[in-house]
Each structure stands twice: as C-alpha cells, then as structure tokens.
Amino acid sequence: MDGEELTEQETALYDRQIRVWGVDAQRRLSKAHILVSGMKGTVVEFCKNIVLAGVGSLTLVDDRLVTEEALSANFLIPADESVYDGKSIAELCCDSLKDFNPMVRVSVERGDLTSFGGDFYNKFDVVVVSCCSLAAKKLINEKCRKLSKRVAFYTVDCRDSCGEIFVDLQNYAYSKKKLDETVECRLQYPSFEEAIAVPWRALPRKVSKLYFAMRVIERFEQVEGRNPGETSIADLPGVLKLRKELCEAHSLNESQIPDALLERLVTATREFPPVCAVIGGILGQEVIKAISCKGEPLKNFFFFDAMDGKGIIEDITKPVHLKPSSFGERGVISL
Amino acid sequence: MDRIEVSNLNRQFLFRLQDVGKPKAEVAAKRVMERVSGVNIVPHFCRIEDKDLDFYNDFSIIVLGLDSIEARSYINAVACSFLEYDSEENPQEETIKPMVDGGTEGFKGHARVIMPGVTPCFECTIWLFPPQVKFPLCTLAETPRTAAHCIEYAHLIKWDEVHSGKTFDPDDPEHMKWVYSEAVKRAELFGIPGVTYSLTQGVVKNIIPAIASTNAIISAACALETLKIASGCSKTLSNYLTYNGVEGLHTKVTEFARDKDCLVCGPGVLIELDTSVTLQKFIDLLEEHPKLLISKASVTHRGKSLYMQAPPVLEEMTRSNLSLPLFDIMDKTAKDIVHVTGTTINKGTKTSCLRKLRVVFKGIDGVTDMDTAGGA
C-alpha cells in the first residue's frame, strides 16, 4: 500500500465520504491525475464532484471564450463579466474549482489535444473528453491504449435533455463485495472504435434508441465537417437521409431510430442543467470507482433521458462468434 | 435551522471553509444569487415547525432536502392539509400543493413527486422505510455482540451511571473520547472487535455517510421534476425514483399507489359533534380519539386561529374561545375542515404532528345523522 497517511485536515474534510469508501480509496484518490476536455455543463458538474472528492490533480482543456450560452449551464463561470479579461472558459473554471477544494491542484492546458503525444497522456490516470469529434475521440482513445500504464478513457455528451457516457477501462481488475466476502473480478473493455463498429443488427432488439441516434448525429457531424454540437433543425432532412443510409448498411429497421428523437437531439443546442448534474454525478462516481478499483464499474455505455428519468446501461461489445446468417446480406459490415 | 460544519464541505459546494458556523440558508441564498441574475431567494434560519400554515400555502411547489422521517412527515402533513375534496370525493385541483422530495445515504438515494390526493403522500408509503435501529436494552446491558452495542452501552447506560445529572454532549470531544474509551473496555471484556473512534462518533451522532456524486444525481432529479411542474413542459416522474450505486449502477422508477384510507392525504378524519360541544371539550376529545391521540392541540379554521397553545401572547388572546361552542366559532357552518397541530407518540417518541379533520355538526338542516360505522 502507498505509505503516506491522510493529513488531519483531509480526515476532517473527507470524514463523510471516508465512511462510504474507506481510507485506502481516499488515499488512492489523492494521488490520481485527471485530464478533462470540453468544459460544458456536464463536464463542469463532473469536475465539481471529483474536486470535492479530493483527487490529486485536475487538468482542464478548453480554449473557447465565454458566450451567453455557456453561462446558462456552466455554474463555474462567474456572473461578473469584469473578471473575464480575455480568459478562456478553462481558465475561468480553474479559478472557481480551486475555491471548491484548495487541496486539489487544478491547472489549464492550452492547445489541440489530438496533437499531444504519449508523453503527455502518460501523466494522467483518467482522461475524460466531451464535445469531441468522432475522429478525435478515436485518436485520443488510441493514445491512451498505447501506453504501458492503464489510462482510463471516458467520453460524455449531452444533447437536448439526453446524455451518453462511454467507458473504456481496457483490461480491468477490481474487488467486489459478495455477501460477507470480497471477490476479485476482471473485465475486458473494447475501445470506442471497436464498440461502435459492432454491427447494429448484432445488438439485442431492446438496445436503447439513444445509442443509434447518437451514432447517426455523430457521423453526420463528421461527414459535414461540423464542430461537435453544431447542428440545428435545418439539418434534420440531412440527418434523416444519413439515418436511412446507415440503417440500410446495418440492415436495421429505420423505425428503431425515431424521427422525433433525432429532431430533439439535433434542434436543442442549449444544455439542461439538471441533466448535466445527473450525468456529471454518475460519471464522477464511475471515475472514483476506477481510481479506487473498488466497486463494479459501468460497462460500457450509459444513457439517460430526462423525459422519463430512466438510466440505461448497454454493453456494446464485439460478440465472440457472429451468427452465420449475418453474412451474405447486402451492405457493408465493418468490424 | 442548521449551521455549516467542516464535514459538510465535501459535498455542500455552496459553502467554503470561511463559512463554517454561519447559517446554511443565508450562505446558500447569497451564493446562488451572486451567480444567477434575476433569481430571488429569501433565507429563513429557523425550524420548519416555526412557520405557520399560511406561510407554506403561499408557495406553488414545496421541495424537500430534509434529514429525517419526522421532518418529512411534518411537511407532508402541511402540504396535504391544503387539499380539499369535492362532493364526489375527488381532490380539487386548485388545492393540490405539489411536493418534490429527495434523500441520500452513501451510494443510495431517492427522488419522488407527491401530488396530494393523486399520488401517494409520504404517510401512504411510510412502510417503505426499514424500522429504525434501536437496540434492546437487555442486549446493551447483558449480551452485546457488535461494536455498536458496546458503544451504545457506554453512551446510553454507563454515562448516566458515572455522570449522573450531566447531559452527554455529542459535540464535546472530551465526552466523545470518554464514551470511546468505555466502549473499548467493554469490547475487550466481551472479545468484540471493531470499536474505533470514528465508529463511536458515527453511532452516537447517527452520522449518515455522504458523497457529492450521489447528491448531484438526486438533487438534479428533484430539480428536473420541479422545473417540469413549474413549466408544465413534460409529464412528471411517476412517482418514485431510486438510485443504487453500491454494486454497479442501478436506477428504477416505481409507480406506487395511494392509500385510500390515508389519514393525512385523505379527506380528513371525520369527527361528529353536537353543536353544544365547546372548543375545550373538542381539544380534550382529540387526545382520546384512537386515530389521532394528539395532546396540546392548537386549532385553526380557514386560516383563523381558534386556539393556540403557544406563544404566550397568542395563547392569551385565544384563551377565551375555549369556553365557546365550536359550532359558533366556526361561523355556524354545518360541516367544514379544521386543522390541528400538537404532539403525538409515534413508536415511543414524541413528535409534532398536523392533522386535517372533517368536522360535522349533528342535527343541522340538510345534514342527517351520519352512520357512525362509516365515521370516526
């Protein structure tokens, strides 16, 4: 075990949570280094939760400047414009987060995450990306996987009043309480690229429609060269056309991805604070679990829809054996 | 009525180290108003029982982040007391006071929407709560088996034996250390492991473990439902959400049904009276009534205080009503709703309570004697 004891100050501040996850987990948290990119409402909630929990350090990446839209869902940006002073959103959030827990080292990194190399990513134990293009998600995930130490990778995105979390813990061992004894378990996670390449037809029929809807819009943004989240109602015809193509390629019935759902996700660009808090809360707890290696982590997608308040976990992993009937049908199957 | 403590800071992020000791309501209001322009928050640093019914009736929605069953029970009774039923025993929509309630403990939490008369109220589903942990005295005194037994022995039995007269103060570190050392001695005597100072504090102060992430999820669910009710933009959660992150991640929404006979959100306990019955006699009746057992009752009718037990000024002002017939001071209406507040014994402990009563006066024109079988 790591030698250092918690200070008296840490023990007093973290008393209520040490009673939940124990002193060892708290020590591991205090040595963890987290990288976060894309400071929108959900990520801001996530940062608040892990800073309060007492992680070792948190590095923020987001060079954008403050907009009125950002203010509507990012509670870390102060209301007083006079302090903005040309600072980026990441810099403003950094100042606020330091206030929440002075014991956590919060800092800012400028630049394009996709251009940083293995040396950079090696500094972290956890990487969380949001408002990230499909290409960037795959690239950053790969950089994490290439390292010899395990770096946990998460993506998180909210559209309208829905949210999606993706988790990649690679080859992961953890302990779980079963009745009175502690059991050692092991899970194997696919990368983001591997997960989304699973043929849609191979997935169970009850799979959340949100999974498909998110993939359609993600692909639309890639094809149209849009920044993540930059869609509007005017794009709906184009999105529906892409849905048709993708469903044909995957031999999936178009009704599995309802028009109404796509319209919701494409139209609303403003975030909804309570949804950000739910997703940010769940993501916060997942990251805490991954750092402490205690408790069963989510595998590997989580969906939330505020309309019905339901949270759904989907395990989207390449099946070991493909059913023979999946071959010989029209369309391209990429694995 | 709470003040900020250091142990709050790991999750109550509206507070900072320099706010320790200040009233929570005041600091929270100030911080939120600093960040969100156009919102108006009025803090009230007091107990929930200190406000009268009119205060609560002013609000469109009541949202709860309370820390005990008793407190929730009380506010639930307040909100349900505004509910009125029409002649067909249907709730009257304009009297429905919606409530949103949330609570957490470690990795578990719940959020629920209560529409009095439509969805189950807090009392309708009180069976959801597991019985509160209370160790039998003989276990503590003779046959302890767990570390908690040893601690409670020191706290509830040994303390009085040694410090007769002096009250135990859970916030005094010297008192806590004494209980801890006595608990250790007892544990050694019986060969029971696990007594730590941290556990001693937890058992004696009934500390609830808490983390920021669970709170974020549950408070967000509550905020979401409150926004839906206020704006009418979508149908609300129907009606009880549970979250459990103990093993993996589990959420569920259950639609519970109302208890038709609920004493709190139902049409009110029926009380039949002769027109000659005085207010004093009525108050005495409440103490004996098997469904109520309310002592030291204060009575209000349509917002007017008929008799108030406290404060002394109000007691003096309303004392003269005690000798008057209730029928007269209720404006001679044949039947109407009154609200009574007082104390009742619930599972051995005295708790504040509020009840809605349907008072019907016998022998008045248009009202025939009701079948007592269907009444009180």
Q: Can you describe what's shown?
A:
The complex is a heterodimer of chains A (about 325) and B (about 375). With about 325 residues, chain A is of the alpha/beta class. Chain A has helices at about 10-15, 15-30, 40-55, 70, 90-100, 120, 135-145, 190-195, 210-225, 235-250, 260-265, 275-290, and strands at about 35, 55-60, 105-110, 125-130, 150-160, 160-170, 170-180, 180-190, 300-305, 310-315. Chain A folds into 2 domains: about 10-195 and about 270-315, Rossmann fold, CATH 3.40.50; about 195-265, no CATH class. Chain A has an 8-stranded mixed sheet with strand order 3-2-1-4-5-6-9-10, with helices on both faces. In chain A, strands 7-8 form a two-stranded antiparallel ribbon. By secondary structure, chain B is an alpha+beta fold. Among the domains of chain B are: about 1-45, no CATH class; about 135-205, Orthogonal Bundle (Arc Repressor Mutant, subunit A); about 270-360, Roll (Structural Genomics Hypothetical 15.5 Kd Protein In mrcA-pckA Intergenic Region, Chain A), CATH 3.10.290.20. Mean pLDDT of chain B is about 90; it is low at about 370-375.
The CATH topology of the domain at 269-361 in chain B? Structural Genomics Hypothetical 15.5 Kd Protein In mrcA-pckA Intergenic Region, Chain A
Which chains have the largest interface?
A-B, 50 and 44 residues
Portion of residues within helices of chain B: 25-40%
Distance between the termini of chain B: 37 Å
What structural class do you assign from the helix and strand content of chain A? alpha/beta
For this structure, the CATH topology of the largest domain in chain A is Rossmann fold
Q: In CATH terms, what is the architecture of the largest domain in chain A?
A: 3-Layer(aba) Sandwich
